[in-house]
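Dear support,

We are seeing what looks like truncated structure output for some complexes. This example has two components. We would appreciate it if you could run it in full and send us the complete token output so we can diff it against ours.
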Amino acid sequence: MVSGLEFSAITEAAQRIRSHVHRTPVLTSKAIDGMCGATLFFKCENLQKAGAFKARGACNAVFSLSEEEAGRGVLTHSSGNHAGALAMAAQKRGIKSYIVMPNNAPAVKQAAVEGYGGEIHFCEPNLTARESLTDKIAEQTGATLIHPYNDLRVMAGQGTAALELLEQVQDLDMVLTPVGGGGLLSGTAAVVNRLSTKTKVIGAEPQGADDAFRSFRAGKIIPMEEPNTIADGLLTSLGDLTFEVISKYVHDIVTVSDKAIIAAMRNVWERMKIIIEPSSAVPVAALMDKKLNISGKRIGVVLSGGNVDLNRLPWS
Amino acid sequence: MVSGLEFSAITEAAQRIRSHVHRTPVLTSKAIDGMCGATLFFKCENLQKAGAFKARGACNAVFSLSEEEAGRGVLTHSSGNHAGALAMAAQKRGIKSYIVMPNNAPAVKQAAVEGYGGEIHFCEPNLTARESLTDKIAEQTGATLIHPYNDLRVMAGQGTAALELLEQVQDLDMVLTPVGGGGLLSGTAAVVNRLSTKTKVIGAEPQGADDAFRSFRAGKIIPMEEPNTIADGLLTSLGDLTFEVISKYVHDIVTVSDKAIIAAMRNVWERMKIIIEPSSAVPVAALMDKKLNISGKRIGVVLSGGNVDLNRLPWS
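Here is the complete output from our reference environment:
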């Protein structure tokens, strides 16, 4: 086994989660094609259940558990979309979910978890506090930890978006996804490498959280010290499992400025009439900024999520 | 012929415009279903080209013209989505479009028309000025007037959204659309009456522009004197052609407050991650406000458009 993530794990995930997640549509926009000089196909995971691709990995992990494991519940630490997605997946299976969140997590993210019946445990917003509280809950409850990205079940689930995309659109020259912890990018790369060898897979990352960009070039994980970007879903650093797959199957990683991210986000809202969060706009920004040679090409873009606070838009 | 709008005109329109418009997706939302106590199917014309169902009627009208008529261009008066849609349709056919707009029309609507190569002619914002300028341009250019709704070609085109909806979702108990001038509602009603007699068709209207509600009950057109609503796409009054079809095939018309419209609009943005304009939110508001007996029913909702000024959101 050269990579920890098997293609068969992704096709099995697709079967497992089929009745629990949306098969999201692929949308196109002549206006944005015109701006980029290419033909883009947007895989709309912002329209996914719980508003992000994270529903795929969370459902695959939760429905992979034995009855006995499931009975003890699931546990994670996240202040973002994985938290809501895991709570939703647990609710679907009828089991408990414990979510460790920093006490400064946005109210809207807390509400999402609570809406799905998740049990929130607050900690101080630092790594030590988070890990010690997570360990403590695991010990007390026996709940299974479902890491937001560095988990083969989660990575396989995230890869199912690309499986659908390649069924929905043929003959792509390139597929772009955002990269934070690397769950979506690694799952996508494993699928594309197997099903369409001519298609290049590119990760797009904010300049203010460019650990994947630097790690990819260095050939080893270089964690992010103090990430600073509007793309709040991409603050995390790669894990060893995601890094291995990305190193093997991803063709390149490019970075974009926050200014370009906001401009791309607004263009998608205005032209496509869909709500995407800043993280989703990162690959769009890479295409609009001509960071890649894309002229005349057919390009798939995974729009990762649409969870934004409508009272705090980046252009208002 | 009992109604001026023949079903065959709608199926012909579908063929005629197929390569010019999107077959829009139907989306669902468990969260909004829960709020309404029914199962809703949203036909997303906000994701249509030029951001509204108006692309359908405009394309059908423009591509119905003879070569000789087309050569003289098309003409309309509109400050809304029909203006942009007609300019787009004309651009697709490679002909001129003349758009009469009040000089206080939103900058974003002007930009849309210009973006599609339409020629804008400004008039004072009153009926007399609008009609005299429209007549003058018609006389000078010989352009064909394409009325925003009271035109059988336009009504037939708008009906194609319901044709698709009934292919995409079976067994609907009810279909709701917003009603302004009645183009969308009449086209929808003609289709549903023919293809699914058990399905009721309901129009939803803002309380501040309730001429269709009052006309429907009075059995004659009662024009709106001073409409006042946030649903800026629904300020117009029914025409004789749309009123005839609506009287015959629509089961009821309900009204909702602007407050309910804004709340419904925000719920759709937050839960479904799609951008809809206030007019689109009108039928959603009717369902959320329990204006109808919908418990446990399967309901189609046409989301009419998604053109909003992101700098001026109703909740900010």
